Every structure is written in C-alpha cells, then in structure tokens.
Fold this protein.
Amino acid sequence: MFSLALDQLQERRPSTINDGGPDGQDYNPARRKSTTASVNAMKTATIRPNYANTTIDKLQDKTLLHIFNFLEHTEISRLAQVSRKWYGLACNSQLWQNVSFRPEFAGIVAPPSIDKAVDLIGRRFGPQLKYIELPIEHICAPVFHELAAKCPNLSHMVLDFSNAMQLHDFNDLNAFPAKLRTLCICLSDVIFMEGFMRKIYNFINSVECLQLIGTYERVTEEEEEVHETLHILKLKSHVPNLRVINFFGVKFLDDNHIEAISSNCVHLECLCIKFCTKFTGSSLKILLQRCRKLSCLLMEQTGLTSEAFRDVEWEKSRLSELDITSCEITSEVLVNVLGRIKNLKWLCAGYVDGFNDHVLESIMQNGLAKSLYAVDFQCCDNLTEEALFKFLEAHGSQLLGLNLSGIPWLVETFWTQSIPFIRKIKILIMGTAKICTISRGSSKIHVDQIIDCVAMNCPNTQRLEIRWDPETLRFSDKSSKFIDTLRVKASKLRSFVLSDGEYFELVKSNFERAHRRAIVRTSVCCNTTLLSLLPYFKDLRFN
C-alpha cells in the first residue's frame, strides 16, 4: 500500500521539474515541501505499531522477571496474589538470591513454623540462593540441613542471636553450608554459644570474612559483669583463611584475643574493632609483625593508649586505612606515628583532642598528605580555620571524602572559599548541630551560597550532609533556584542529609517533583560517614 501510494505521487509529479536547472520553469518549492511531508506522514503511519491493546500481561516472562528484580521481597509477595502467572514468576528462584528473614532490618516476615521455612528453602530458593539472614527462631538443625542440601551456592550467612533467650537443640546438627565466604554472628549478652559453634567448626574453613557483632549499643552504666559468650581463642584455629575480621562492639574483646587471632591469620588484610573498649593496643605490635598483609585498621572508640600506639613498627607495615576516632592520643605521638606511615590514604581522626595545627602541618611537611584521598577531622576543636584552609588549598584537589563537621568556626565564608579546591569530592560533610557564638563564628549560616558553590564546583558529589540545625540555617525565596542547580549539576547525588525543619521540607519537595524521592533524608535517621570509600566497605557491612 505504501509503495503504491508512492508510485501515484511520482506519476503526478510534473516532468518539467528540475531542481535549480535551466528548464525548471514550473518548479514550486511549496508544492515539493508538501509532497515530501505527505510521503513522510504515510511512512510513519505505516510503520508505527499499535500499542492500544498492549498490557503488562503480554510482556515476556524474562521481561517481567527483570522488572520484579528491582522490587523488595515484601512487594514481590504481594504481586504473587495478582494472578497464577504472576504467582509462578514470583516463585522463580532468580528473585530469591538474597533473602532476609529479619523484618526489623527490611527483611520479610519469616514463616511461622520451622517446617514451612524448610519447605520454602527447598521449593523457592534452591541453588540460586547466595545470601541469607536468619533470626533466632530459625537457627536450628532442620534449616541448616536443608540449606546444606539444596543451596550449594550459599556464600553469605547472617545468624542473629542478639535477642535470644534460649537456643534450639543442636545435638542432631550434622550438616552445615560448607562454602561460606562470609559468616556474620550477632551475639547475645546472655547466651553462651560454644555448644553451637562446636558443631559448625568443621564446616567454616572456607570463611574469608568473619563478623562478630556485639551488644555495645545496649551497654548500661549499672552493668557489672561482661560474659565471653563466644570463645574466640577456639574459633581462630578453624578459620585460617580470614582476610577481613569485624569485631564490632564486642564488649569482652581485649588484647589477648587480638594476639591469638594474629597467630593463625597470616592472610589478614582488614581488622575492625570499633567500640571494643577493653582493647588498649598492647597487641598491636605483634599483630603487625605477624599479619604482613594488614592494610586497614579501624579502632574507633577503643581504649588505645598513646604508648602502645607509638611502639608499633609502622614504617614496616602496609597500612593504608586508619581510624583512631575518639581515641586519647597525644599530639607528640600523632606526629611520631603519622610520620612513619608511608602510604596512608584514608584517615579518620575525629574527636581526637591531640590532633591540632602542629599535627596537620607535620603531615603536610613529611609528604603524607600527598597520598590521602579521604580525611575525617570531625569535632577536632584544636584545628584552626587557617590551618584547614591551607591544607585544602594544597591537597584538596586529590580528596574524594571530607568530614569537617562539628567545628563551629567553619562557616559559609570558609566553605565558599574552600569548595573550589575539592572538585573531585564524592562525600562532603559540614556544619554542627548547635553553633557556638564566638568571635570567629556567626549566628546564622547562609546556605544558598554553599549549595551554589557545591553545585558549580563538585559535579561528582554522591553524598552531602549539612548538619547545621534549622535555627542556624538562613535561606531565602531564591533558595529553590539554587536547589534546582544542585539537582541538575550534581546528577550523581544519591544522599542529601539535612536537619529536620523548613529548609529540609523545601529541598525534599524539590527533589520529589523531579522524581528523585529517596535522595533527601533527615539527620534523625541517617548519618553520613566516609566508610563507603574504604576498599573493604562491602565486606564490613552488616544489618
């Protein structure tokens, strides 16, 4: 039909038409333009498909599975009630590779009985299952037997004992997943786990990442006795291939445990002992002597002493990431140690009173600052505005992460002058919840200038947090314009954290109108750190 119509149009075209030729006396540009438009219109009408009768049910199964893959498991469970076809798709094991039975951590509600849980593992999860989180109700022999038999590709397991008051009987436990790469155990204050651990020791030789999550957050001042609910000294001989260890908030952990771990973990690359307050650092020297591959050491809010920190042979280590947040270390020791670490790239020293201008200047003079790509000086009140500006002017161009929050005299003047130096920045944290009224400070912060400066100079920003409280922030009727600029220029922005208030609501509504609903968050439920820049961040994540 289309070729016939085209032939008819060509027959009607005068033979005397010659584009620009001497005989083209009957040439009519308007007529030719309309003829071309008619041909294009007929061509479009001929090849345009008809979508009027197309519905989502007519999509191919693989297309629907791809769409379902972006949904949470709770949403997939609801979609299974739509039709038989969707029920079949929702049961596809490809959608159940990562499963959590802990609803308090965004997981699905676990089956009410162990028998149903076992049936679900074999019927729905199967060989596709790679990651599973189990609450105390389903940490039992039948579940482990089914996982070992039906899920050969399971590599990551989380066992949550944190709310346990009583364990199941493990006398019949004779099988356990044997190809685990990551094992995370959330400890309990009152449950001793040696009976359970004795049953699984022979199955965990392949574990490369071990996480023991303690109950530090639930510590009370009245608590007198701390129980060692898991024998780390026995555990260490059964996990010789460990690369990453995360002992987060384990209250009973001390230097004896760290020394024992170092004797059997020659492949150790990352050690996290955040909030292990009994650790003093006396085992650090032997740890770095035995674990030559250790490159990441995180010791936030431990009992680390200046003497133990100084006595380590740092010049012989391969350390590149160091966290000493909230540790009581003197300025002299900081100058001494940071002068001996040759390849430090990631440094967190927040809440360290000894970190002052002298320490910062020594870092710049000995050349250490040239290798840094992320620094956290949060609440280091002994750092002056002049020293920080000098540091950013010299080395800001290489920084990917910067946290200078909690320093009250760093106001909009400092930031508008410093932000042009940090053009590669990905994570930026600034401001303090309650600004102090001092001679160098200001009672109000003009946030529009800061937002505009970030938008124009930092296109790679992924996470931004402004911690000034609503009473301190000052914005205007033109704030929406600056927010628009930030949203457009910083297209990679994934998290923007603000204190709850009028400005937060303004920014949130602006991003929601652009269909970017999950970007703006309140500081009540979100806190930005530089941890995501660590090379071992994915291995250290839990909950």
Notes: Residues 1-27, 29-33, 436-442 have pLDDT under 50 and may be disordered.
